[in-house]
Write a structure and sequence with these properties.
Length: 380
């Protein structure tokens, strides 16, 4: 028997989403830890393709949720970074996830999910015991990421509320000496400030709705919400979010579209819904529409995140250049630009981007390490 060929057949079956073929290959004794040229295990590939049933089968056969690919990413952190809550829950339920493990940027599973506003993922990570105050190599905790990279809307307030209720350190400062409260004061958003200062007086209805949502009692949450004034923006947000959790995406979008007529933040929720549906073009179009009327970094940055997830690095680099034109002091933007350039094998340009980051933050070893790696790739 050609063991290599047989093991490769498992990777092929996972990539094509053929669940029965995967089961057959596993029963035939295929190596569940076999990797492709990118160092991806069958479990990593299944996670990246959001293949819940295949993930379940691989876990039964002992797949390693902490196995790293060539970029040092694990299936556990990958699931969280993409907001694949059902898969993340299966991985956590296996009891095998290294909760304090980090990606190559020094971030736990909690950090990218907080950054991107994946509320359910954040809740699962916190409940499982992922460290709430861990700081990544950019100098940010999950709370700082949610405040700095969020838009202080309903969704991000929910993320931040969860972090604060799990005792996130509001006084923790980043490399610039600023903490979450200082950044929040720049937004002048009273609701966000109240959450961070632990002075929030929660409306009883929404407190009850959040409790049901946290417990997975989605129909009970809907019963309450359906009885409320559906011109209220917060009601529309929770109606959309609850239907989104139920995978009733078209209904969720209907509520979100009503909210978008009055508040720009709802464009983000619509874009996320299309993303979850696999309607990639509609998700990107939603971001583009929002960018036309919102001159802040928020939609451009999160569109660039999405483009990187899709492997569309050329477009991501152009968007980062646009952002850096408006925010030339943002070292994280240079860092993201450099990573996309490396993915495109444009290593000299990646090195130049890292040099810019080093000028702004010379004490951060992350940038020096990545500069050295890019320069070595230029030589090769």
């Amino acid at each position: 028997m050609d063991t290599v060929k047989v093991n490769q057949s498992l990777l092929k079956a996972v990539t094509s989403g053929q669940t029965q073929q995967v089961i057959q290959r596993l029963n035939e004794g295929c190596d569940v830890s076999v990797t492709d040229e990118e160092g991806r295990s069958p479990l990593m590939i299944a996670v990246q393709h959001n293949q819940l049933e295949i993930v379940k089968e691989l876990l039964v056969f002992g797949a390693d949720v902490n196995q790293r690919d060539n970029t040092q990413l694990t299936p556990f952190i990958c699931a969280a970074a993409n907001g694949f809550d059902e898969i993340l829950n299966e991985i956590l339920q296996s009891g095998r996830a290294e909760l304090a493990s980090v990606n190559r940027f020094g971030g736990t599973a909690l950090l990218p999910s907080s950054e991107k506003g994946y509320l359910r993922t954040v809740q699962l990570c916190l409940t499982a015991g992922v460290p709430v105050d861990h700081v990544n190599r950019l100098g940010w905790s999950a709370l700082l990421e949610a405040v700095i990279l969020g838009n202080s809307g309903f969704l991000y307030q929910d993320v931040i509320r969860e972090l604060v209720q799990h005792q996130a350190n509001v006084a923790q400062v980043d490399g610039t000496g600023k903490n979450a409260l200082m950044y929040a004061k720049e937004t002048a958003d009273e609701g966000l400030l109240a959450i961070l200062e632990k002075k929030e007086v929660e409306a009883p209805i929404f407190k009850e709705v959040r409790a049901y949502l946290n417990n997975g009692d989605l129909q009970k949450a809907l019963t309450i919400l359906d009885a409320q004034d559906q011109t209220d923006l917060e009601v529309l947000y929770y109606l959309g979010y609850t239907h989104q959790r139920l995978k009733e995406f078209k209904t969720a979008i209907t509520y979100y579209e009503k909210g978008w007529k009055k508040d720009q933040q709802f464009a983000f929720y619509i874009g996320n819904s299309y993303r979850m549906m696999g309607e990639i073009d509609k998700a990107l179009q939603t971001y583009d529409h929002a960018i036309k009327t919102d001159q802040s970094f928020f939609y451009r940055y999160h569109k660039s995140n999405f483009l990187r997830e899709l492997g569309r690095h050329e477009a991501a680099v152009k968007l980062m250049d646009d952002l850096l034109g408006d925010y030339p002091e943002r070292v994280d933007f240079y860092f993201h630009k450099a990573n996309s350039l490396r993915s495109l094998n444009r290593h000299q340009e990646a090195a130049e981007a890292m040099e810019q980051a080093i000028q702004l933050s010379p004490e951060n070893p992350l940038f020096s390490e990545h500069l050295a790696q890019s320069l070595q790739l230029v030589k090769n």
